[in-house]
Amino acid sequence: MELTINALAVAIQNKTLVKDVSLTVRPGSFVGILGPNGSGKSTLLRTIYRALAPQSGAILLNREPLQNIKIADTAKQIGVVGQFHSLSYNITVLEMVLLGRTPHKRRLAGNNREDYEIARQSLQQVGMEHFADRNFATLSGGEKQRIILARALAQQPRLLLLDEPTNHLDIKYQLELLAIVKSLDISVLAVLHDLNLAAMYCDDLYILKEGQLIAGGTPDDVLTSRLIRQVYEIDCHVMKHPRTGCLSISYCPAGQERITG
Ligand SMILES: Nc1ncnc2c1ncn2[C@@H]1O[C@H](COP(=O)(O)OP(=O)(O)OP(=O)(O)O)[C@@H](O)[C@H]1O
Predict the structure, then answer these.
(1) What is the CA(40)–ligand 1 centre distance, in A?
(2) CA 18 – ligand 1 centroid, Å
(3) CATH of residue 223
(4) Ligand 1 site, residue 37, Cβ cutoff 6 A
(5) Does residue 246 form part of some domain?
(6) How many C-beta neighbours within 10 Å does residue 174 have?
(7) Which GO terms describe its molecular function (predicted)?
(8) Gap between the terminal Cα atoms of the chain
(9) Domain-embedded: residue 167
(10) Is the ipTM above a cut-off of 0.95?
(11) What is the pTM of this model?
């Protein structure tokens, strides 16, 4: 699925939080949105999944304006993994993942064999199949985050929107989660904070600052020390990782050339 955003503006309480944003997520590509805290990343994502209405501009799915698509149809096509908010529903993990099947079912219809199979496969994809019968509320933050991804996978979306999906995960699971997402043959738009993870997994990156896009392109194009300084007001060293060939960024706190020695 192709996502196109043209000259989008979003305002809340008369304050414009997203200004003139245009970007494209090509079918099957993994696109990252980066930017400092409060730069409008979540606001942009929430507008795409229709939790907020745009002030102006257009959002198109496969060139069809979003407002022409029924909400029930967008629910089938767009999966969302939002920011972690210590969810503690008192249901089993399998029941939580089965909720991902809801947009595909008639109202009040129960889960059928296919729903169970898809839910168990999704649990397997995130390495959590042995947690199926556990009470969701008793999981750790990182375990919950993986189950929420499994729920989105069970939805079998054609576009996945992720808001800081690696929050609460240790580094092994950060890498694993992004590798799972990358291996899916669907379009992904993810808000990320970790520039190194973005460099490793994203095909394209866009950088937001104060609601405006200030750069877009491949990680090699975007993640320059000059741009990182402009956006985050820090010094850094950017090099190619000798094993992965991806950009690798190390940070130098402002005004400190050496911390030890
Ligand atoms: N409902 C709201 N009412 C008023 N201001 C809001 C509302 N939602 C967001 N904002 C403000 O809009 C700005 C952008 O918020 P947003 O959550 O989109 O930023 P973000 O880039 O995702 O930030 P972070 O990296 O900290 O998660 C922030 O200054 C925030 O305080």
Answers:
(1) 6
(2) 10
(3) 3.40.50.300
(4) yes
(5) yes
(6) 21
(7) ATP binding; ATP hydrolysis activity
(8) 52
(9) yes
(10) yes
(11) 0.93
